[in-house]
Design brief:
heterodimer; A: mainly alpha; two-stranded antiparallel sheet; B: 293 residues; mainly alpha; ABC transporter involved in vitamin B12 uptake, BtuC; 11 helices
Chain lengths: 335, 293
Amino acid sequence: MTNLTNTISKKNKHFSMNVFILVLAIIGAVLPLIWDNPYTMQILILIFLYAAAAGAWNIIGGYAGQVSLGHVAFFGLGAYTTALLYNFFGISPWIGMILGGILAAVVAGLISYPCFRLRGPFFTLATLAFAEVLRLLSIWARPLTGGQVGVTILFNPGFKNFQFFGKTPYYYIALILMFLVLIVSIWIERSKFGYYLTALKEDHDASEALGINTAKYKLYAIAISGFLTGLCGAFYTQLLLFIEPLSVFTSHLSNQFAMIAVVGGAGTAVGPILGSVIITPLNELLRGALGGDFQGLNFVIFGAILILVVTFMPNGLVGFFKDMKAKINHRSESK
Amino acid sequence: MYLMQVLISGLMLGGIYAMVSMGLTMIFGVVRVINFAHGEFLMIAMYLVYWLNVLLGMDPYVSILITVPVFFVFGVFVQRILIQPIQESPATIKIFSTLGLGLVLSNLALMLWDADYRSVKVSYSTAVINISELSISVPRLIAFIFALLVAVFMYSFLTKTDLGKQIRAVSQNRQAALLMGINVRKIYMIAFGIGSALVGLAASLLMPMYFVYPSIGLLFGLIAFVVVVLGGLGNMYGAFLGGLIIGLVEAIAGAYIDPALKEVFYFIIFILILLLKPSGLISMGRGSEEVGL
């Protein structure tokens, strides 16, 4: 009997989540039709992009609990692969995007594997260092990457070239990207793979004792995460049509991806979206409003938010709302 | 002769790295927190030295009397206010807390003092001692001598004094230490304070030969992480040795390959260590690479 009720409540849970996603998708799809102001469109595109990147981070950092502080490495790999393949060989950015994602996934796996055999902070340190190495290499390899100057993508609009005049096509692509990450996250949550990740996060020894090959599943998680982050980087290239080491290999982005996921709720599918809805507009607002007078103020505020969130609501906003809901339910039950 | 020259300047520089890294490994070994704001502590300390020099005309070496106590107290406060409330939380929480602190510090510096490179002007910053054909930079030599003194001092402090023994006891087994009547919370604060004070000292020794800018913390933080993994997490002597080695690697890579790629070599060393000997050069026993976190 309890088994039956369990299955039903699980199904209900899935059902409400599915409805939530559908509603979100419809709102997202309709929004540009009623509210197409270029500035808000730009902000929305960035919200989706950061939600997607934070969601990709969340797969390894949230579900598997392996904190990466160098995810910009995979973002930058996706960005540069797309840009260089297009500029040098005329390969369509759509293909470049996939290739960039694959390259990011492979590199992510290679860098992470030595760390995943070990426990401890090695993975975090390795990702941090690797991102810095890629930044320096991208500056150093001038003939290929243009060094500090960066790469300007040859402008030739059209669907095949992933370049558009208006913002609307970018809006829909960013929306799809975000939903792709969301759906992958939900699939992970509901699959055995997701349970393995949760198990190894909660208790590494116990999960190994149960026969879970922790290194293997962590490797899968980082590869998926790296691939999706690479896609985000490729999208960024096409959105701005200009990349430089300072913009696609900066540690700021790594911090931002992680922070958005943590503030929203690490290890949950909607957490990164919620986090991005709050953090991304705040970032644009602070940068836009204060300009050069107080450069850095946005990150002073974000650093403080990060400290407060992990100290007082370690499960982020999603965890906070869940606690509230549980309290309300508890109260109504006791009445 | 050129090689000799390269090795000597690398070794001297390694002294500074050793000092910064000993602070990081002290905090990690005892408090079990990787201080992701460690490089930013150094950056703020360097600004302190800079402003003491510019505003009060204080010599960087005299400023040791200020940076060391100020940063000891700063470290104690960080442990008390930031880390203690989350001491029992998972490692990821502690990573984000110190990362958040690092973000606040580096961007506060950017906000207050811009991204300009600043350096103190002292007469001896380019002074050299010539021994036959070798020339040794005076500030580097002073820094190296200090590093040696600090290593000897830390060694005798940790092995001979009661407080030092308490610190080692806590780092080896905090439960047992607690049961022996050691005030573990106090030891955490002291260890964080010492780790932070070492950074203050390093800043005073660095400023005569280096410049400071808001994001310099990332570079030094990265070096310290590599050194600490190289030496063995939580191992003070390993950190000292690792610092010297990284200094040598930097000098050799800079002289014979390309100075722009020195970080790439740190990283290669880092990955090699993880693959070959994850417990570090001076192993603290089997499985010690898996301490804490």
